[in-house]
Amino acid sequence: MREALWAETLKVRRSRLPWITALAFTVAALVCGMFMFILADPARARAFGLLGGKAQLSGASADWPGYLALLAQAVAVGGLGIYGLIAIWLFGREFSDHTATDLLALPTSRAAIVAAKFTVAAIWALLLALLLAGLGLLIGASLALPGWSAPIAIEGAGRIVAAAALAALTTTPLALAASIGRGYLAAVGVLFALVFAAQVIAALGYGVVFPWSVPGLFAGIAGPDQDPPGLVGLVLVAATGAAGAVTTAVWWNRADHTR
Amino acid sequence: MTAHPLRGAATPVIETVHLGRRYRDVPAVDDVTLHVGQGQIYALLGLNGAGKTTLIRLLLGMIAPTAGTVRVLGADVSAGDRSAWAKVGCLVEAAAAYPELTVRENLDVVRRLRRLPGTADDIIERLALTPYADRRARTLSLGNLQRLALAKALLHAPGLLILDEPVNGLDPAGVAEIRALLADLAHQHGTTVFLSSHLLAEVARLATRIGILHDGRLIGEHDAGDLDRHRRRHLRLATRDDAIAHAVLRAHGYHPEPAAPAGLLLTDERALAQPERVATVLVLGGVPPAELHLEEEDLEAFFLRTVGPRTAPDADTETETRTETRAETGAGDA
C-alpha cells in the first residue's frame, strides 16, 4: 500500500482542497472564539444584534470548558460536511477526471488504492482536528478565558479529536456513494441528505441510533441535560465506518468499471 | 469467421473463448473468440457502439463477462487473476491525467503504482514530452494529453499493449510517430499490440491482423497482407453504345452488368487480369471503349460492406470510396 499512499499524498499536496478545508476549520475556530468574546460581555452581545442572540442561544459558557466544548460541537457537526467533502473528492475525482481506469489494471491492487485513500482521509481529518484544537487554545488564551487548567485543556482537546474521529468515520459511505455515482454529484446529494437527516433525527430524540447524529450528541450539542450517545451509538458509528470502507473496497474490486 | 493461424501454436498472449457481456437484454459483446499471438499488432475495427471498448475493458478485467473466458498472458482475467497487469500497458477510451499534476508527476504516480525504480525521463523523451515535462496536465493540448496517456501505457516496457483509439487527437506527424513507435515495439522488441480504431487507413498501415467487430460480434478476421484478396475489384467501362458493347462482351464469354449511372461493369477474373483484351474485343466489335477503369474497393468500402447492409453506403458513396486505377483508355490504347 506504500506506493498507493505516496500517490494519494502527492495528489492531495497538489490540490487546493487541503487549504480550503484548513480555512474552513480556521473560520470555525474564529467563529467559536467570537462567540466566547460576545458571551463574556452581554453588553457587547447586544451591540452585535442577531449574532449576539445566536451566541447566547448556543448555551455555551464563556470559559475554557465551554469554549472547548463548543469547538468539539463545531467539529462534530461541521466535520460531517468537511470530512464528507474530502471523502467525496478523494474517490469522486477519479471518475470526474476519468483517471479511474488508470488505477484498475496495475500490480498495486485496487484494495490497496482504496485503503490508501481512506488512510489519507483519516490523516487529513486528524490534522484538521489538531489545527482546530491548536487554534482554539491560541484564541482562548488571547481572549483570557477563565477556568484554565491543563487537565481541562487536555480533556477538551481530546474531545475535539474524538468528535472528529467519529465524524470522519461516518463519512466512509460517502466514498462509496462517490464511487457508485462515478463522480461528485450523487455523493454531494447524499451528504446533504445525511446532514439534514442528522439534525432532524437528533431533534426527534432518536439521534443515538442514527450514526450521523452521534458525533454531535457525543460533543454535547443537545445540551448538558441530554445523555451522551453511549456504547450503542459509538458502536453504530464504528460499524458504519467499517461498513463504508469495506463496501467501497468490494465495489472497486467487483463492480463493472464502464467509465 | 476464418480459422486462426495461431490455433494450436504457442500460448496466445490474448485468448478469449466465446466471450460475452450483456447489459440486460443487450449484448455489448457476443460470443467473441479470438487469439492474439506474440508480436502481433492486432487491430479491432468497428463502428461507434460496436463493442470495441467493452471488449477492451473485458480484456483488462474492468468489467466481468457474462459468458466465456478471457486469458491475458496466461492469466485467467475472467476469474480475477491479476498477475498479468505488471506486463500489460493500457489506454482505455479518452486520454486522462490528474490536471493539477505535471506531466512528470502524472508519470511518477504510475511509476510508483507499478513499483518501478528510477525516473520517467526516458519515456518522457521517447514520447517527445520533454518540453512539457514540468507543465501541469490541465494545460496540455489534446495531442500532448494523448502522448502522456501513451507514455503511461509504455512506462514499464510492457509485453502487451492494449490501446483504445491510440492516435485520437494526434496531428498527422504525431500519428506517423506513434505508428512507427508501435511498429518498432512489435517488430524489434516482440511487444504484442492490441488496439481498437475506427481510422481504417491507419489500421491498414500498422496492423498485422485485423478483426472486425459489429454489434458486439467478431464478424471477420483477416491477416493484413491478405486484405487485398478480400477487396472487391471490377472493370468499369463506357462506350458510345453500351447495348452493343454488352452483346459483344457476352459473345466473348464475359459477363457484363449495367453500371450506374451509365456504362458496364465486369467482374470476370480474366477481365480483371487482362483489361487490355477487353479493350481489344470492344475495338474489334466496333464499340471502342471511351473509358476503361480498373476499380478496387478501398479498406473503408470493404469494411462497410463487411459489417452489413444496414450501414453499407449507397451507390454514390460507394463510388466515392473506390480507388480508381486507370488501366486503359480509348481504342487507341488497345
Summarize the structure.
Chain A is an all-alpha fold.
**Helical/strand content category of chain B:** alpha/beta
Instruction: Provide the succession of SSEs of chain A.
Output: HHHHHHHHHHH
Assign the structural class of chain A, choosing from mainly alpha, mainly beta, alpha/beta, alpha+beta, or little secondary structure: mainly alpha
How would a textbook summarize the main sheet of chain A?
A: none
Please give the alpha-carbon distance between the first and last residues of chain A.
24 Å
The percent range for strand residues of chain B is 25-35%
The shape of chain B is elongated
Helix content range of chain A: over 70%
> Number of helix segments of chain B?
12
What features would you describe in this structure?
The complex is a heterodimer of chains A (259) and B (334). Chain A is mainly alpha-helical and 259 residues long. Chain A has one domain (16-105, 122-254). Chain A has eleven helices and no strands. In chain A, α5 packs antiparallel against α6 (110-142), α5 (64-96) packs parallel to α7 and α8 (172-180) packs antiparallel against α9 (185-203). The longest helix of chain B is centred in the middle third of the chain and has 18 residues, at 172-189. Mean pLDDT of chain B is 83; it is low at 1-9 and 311-334. The two termini of chain B are 42 Å apart. Chain B has 334 residues and is of the alpha/beta class. In chain B, the strands form three sheets. In chain B, strands 6-7-8-3-9-10 form a six-stranded mixed beta sheet, with helices on both faces. Helices cover 32% and strands 26% of the residues of chain B. Classes of the chains: A mainly alpha (259), B alpha/beta (334). The interface between A and B is medium-sized, with 25 and 30 residues.
